[in-house]
Amino acid sequence: MITEEEFLKAIETVNNYKKQVYLKLDRMKAALEDKKFTHLILDENTYIYDAGLCAKITNIMKQNNINKLGDLKNYTRADLRNFRHIGKKGIDEIEQCLLQAGIVLT
């Protein structure tokens, strides 16, 4: 049989453990809050699949042998319209991505 003293000691041990766990969680939370998450920095050497484009647009680019954002420098909006299965929204998404990379469609 367990004595009252042993029982109280066990409760104290459990409470101390809980405090340690909460302190560790607080430190981990603070460490995550300290990290500054920034948007992806895009440039002409960014691969299409890393550019944050939707899957449909990424696949269309791959089908047209466009691997990096810089590959689109020589294209116009009219050229992009000729890509199969691409519409105005897709072209707008590409153009927005290119602007973030400092590339303007001609």
What's this, in brief?
The protein has helices at residues 4-34, 55-63, 77-81, 88-100. It contains four helices and no strands.
Structural features, described:
The protein folds into 2 domains: 1-37; 48-100, Orthogonal Bundle (DNA polymerase, domain 1), CATH 1.10.150. With 106 residues, the protein is an all-alpha fold. The chain has helices spanning 4-34, 55-63, 77-81, 88-100. The model has no long low-confidence stretch (mean pLDDT 87). It is rod-shaped.
N-to-C CA distance: 85 Å
* Shape, per Cα inertia axes: rod-shaped
Q: What is the helical fraction, as a range of percent?
A: 40-55%
Number of strands: 0
CATH topology grouping of the largest domain: DNA polymerase, domain 1
Tell me the radius of gyration. 27 Å
Largest sheet: none
Order of helical and strand elements: HHHH
Just give the CATH class of the largest domain: Mainly Alpha
The figure for the number of domains is 2
User: CATH architecture of the largest domain, please?
Assistant: Orthogonal Bundle
Q: Which band does the percent of strand residues land in?
A: under 5%
Overall pLDDT: 87
Classify the secondary structure makeup into a structural class.
Answer: mainly alpha
Low-pLDDT segments, ≥5 res: none
Number of DSSP helical runs:
4
